[in-house]
Amino acid sequence: MEISKYNGFEVVCMTKIESILKSIMELTETEKRELFFRLYSELEEMGFLKLSESSLAEWNSKEDDVYNDL
Prior knowledge:
alpha+beta; two-stranded antiparallel ribbon; 3 helices; 2 strands; 14% strand; Fur-regulated basic protein FbpA
């Protein structure tokens, strides 16, 4: 967020992300859930989840397999 001067007044200028977050806060719980699933699908298609797998590899060990069925 940045503050600019306009006709002698301070004006708060929201970034695109801040504006989106503000809009999300105004959604109902059902709308937020739908948005989450749509974003998840988009990210999955873009390969972000696949990219993150390597960062989680340290937790992939035989000792931890006992937790797989919890």
